[in-house]
Amino acid sequence: MKKCLVTGMPNVGKTCFVINFAEYMGVKELKFHVRQRAGYTAINSYSLSEARKKLISVKENTTKEIQLIKLEINKGKTIRELQLIDSCGLSDGIHPDEEVRLAMARTLRLIRDTEFILHIIDIKNIKNDKKGKDILLPVDRLILDYASMEKKYAILANKMDLSFAEMNLKILKKNIKDIIIIPISALYKEGFKEVKKMVLSYV
Amino acid sequence: MSFKERFTQDYIIEKFTMGEIPIAEAFNKLFNLNEVNINHSYERRIYREERTLNLQPVENKDKNIEEGEKLKRLLEEMDTLIGLEEVKKIVKDYIAFIKVQKLRESYKLKTSPVVMHMIFKGNPGTGKTTMARIIGKIFKEIGYLKGGELIEVERADLVGEYIGHTAQKTRKVVERALGGVLFIDEAYSLARGGEKDFGKECIDTLVKAMEDYKDKLIIILAGYRDEMNYFLKTNPGLASRFAIQIDFPDYSLDELVQIAEIMYKEREYILDDKSKHYIYRILSEIRNKEIINGNARTVRNLVERSIRYHARRIIKMENISRKDLIYIKKEDLLGEEGTDEEMPCNRDAQCR
Question: Which residue in B22, B54, B60 is closest to A93 by CB distance?
Fold first, then answer.
């Protein structure tokens, strides 16, 4: 079974993407395999609307456990399985809460161990490209530098429903070349077709 | 990936979890392995131990919630104490101060040292010991103290019989109190005996202990206002070492009655209207007679005595109803056959 890690900074819409993408792929009931820190895996099943209500919030670092969803994908005549892994967002500096740091450490381990990484970037975090200034936030830059070298990697530019998104996307595409950038809106399920194509090529 | 590489990476991730390195550094180190090398077996062992200690976050989470609630409950307990507004404010200020210092530490900012030794000035029965006990518990909850118990001592526990004995005795008491609060009642008596008194030796030992165990111990000196002021004057070094000096004012008559009502409520008794009126009269009389003794301890003795008399009155009745068991009447407060019995209000009476 192949694994796919969804990562990015806090509050960029990782969980929202995972839930809505699972729905797009035809999952009726979400079965989250939550890895408990005591060592075993518990299965929490939610209906889609329930999951949205419970797991997505505007606060930072809502997701603290690693959550897995198994997707079944028809490829030709065979059925392939893909594990979609939702992780805790990585924020800059040293987070004061130890629990969150522990969750982030688990994300770091996953980044190391997973072969396929979907990196979600909040389109409003893209800065103007002045000379000598990085358009990405430091954490995004770190993930990009590492993962684009070693892994199968794609950037999902989320929150494309915002008004200034198109402009920022242009800046992003101009500055980062040779990397797949897919504009999506996780909330309104836009751009999922391209993501599906990308995932299919990997499975 | 070789075993060694994997181990090094685990070590870096662990360091990040501990909050020792920021994420950027963790990233750089994780994926440029050449920079890091850990040959120190000792360090490795510590990291293992720390990991076993810290990998029970499920339990920790419950504990954290409980601790937050505990602190809330303690603050509520403090708020139910009548009066003492100034003291409460100071304690809350210091809680905020300590919390902010801890946060700053977690962001690797400079912190100023927190010295929490205090002086409580006030008459007996103004809530000094009660306050000290709650302070101990609160500072334990916010993580400043480890144990949080209160050890209450007086001159006799500290001062010895021959030269050199005092320092030993005092040190033992201090060691017993480490991680908690050392409450020295009637502290002014340590300076009373003049030049040759052993009390001076005790003070010197205490001053040294205060410097040595700055963050492990809270020393509280308590005593009457005038005597304490005199005591601080005789030792110029002392006043500057105790940053926090709190005055415990005498209770007003209204506050005393409120205290009495709370005490009855705690014991599930109720004053009827007549006896409420009467308790005002009794308390005002006591206050006029002896200013020093007109405080919370007097009220407690009055309350306990009235409950005793109430029992004596009730047991003689034939049909005892629930109402009879609850209501305190005027004659219970009066004492035997309406005569005013002398109030057992000083400290000795309480001990007996």
Answer: B22
Q: Whole-model pTM above 0.90?
A: no
Q: What is the CATH number of the domain that holds B270?
A: 1.10.8.60
pLDDT in tens, B302-349: 888 888 888 888 888 888 888 888 888 888 887 644 444 454 444 334
Buried b or exposed e, range A126-149, using 16+ CB within 10 angstroms = beeeeeeeebbbebbebbbebbbe
Which is more confidently placed, A40 or B99? B99
Nearest to B23 among A90, A99, A146 (CB): A90
Residues in chain B: 352
Extract the tokens encoding B233: 């004057």
Query: For residue B17, which residues of chain A lie inside 8 Å, CB to CB?
Result: 98, 101-102, 104-105
Which SS3 state, helix, strand or coil, does residue B111 take?
A: coil
Give the whole-angstrom CA distance, residue B93 versus residue A179.
54
pLDDT on residue B66: 63
Which residue of chain B is at minimal alpha-carbon distance from A106?
B13
CATH 3.40.50.300 fits A2-202, yes or no: yes
Q: Do B60 and A93 touch (CB under 8 A)?
A: no
The gap from C-alpha B38 to its chain's centroid, in whole angstroms, comes to 45
Per-residue pLDDT, A150:
79
Between A and B, how many CB-CB pairs are < 8 A? Answer: 68
Residues B82, B168 within the same domain: yes
Nearest chain A Cα to B56, which residue? A38
Low-confidence ranges of chain B (pLDDT < 50): 33-62, 336-341, 343-352
Residue B13 lies in a domain: yes
Q: Is residue B14 within 8 angstroms of chain A, CB to CB?
A: yes
Mutation target vs A (from B6, B31, B100; most A CBs, 10 A cutoff): B31
Share of chain A above pLDDT 90, in %: 2
- Domain, as residue range, for B111: 71-248
Flag if A36 and B22 touch (Cβ within 8 Å).
Answer: no
Joined tokens for residue A63: 């997701």
Which residues of A fall within a CB distance of 8 Å from B15?
Answer: none
| Binary contact (A94, B58; C-beta < 8 A) | no
Nearest CA in chain B to A99: B57
In chain A, what are the helix, strand and coil shares in percent, each to the nearest 5?
35, 30, 35
Query: Can you list the pairs that B279-282 forms with residues at least 24 positions away whose Cβ atoms lie under 8 Å?
Result: B279/B333, B280/B253, B282/B333
Residue B151's H or E segment, with its range, is strand B150-153
* Residue B143 forms contact with A (CB below 8 Å): no
Distance from first CA to last CA of chain B, Å, rounded? 76
Buried b (16+ CB within 10 A) or exposed e, B122-136: bbbbbbbbbbbbbbb
Clarify whether residues B217 and B159 are in a common domain: yes
DSSP letter at A11 equals T
Q: What is the DSSP letter of B346?
A: S
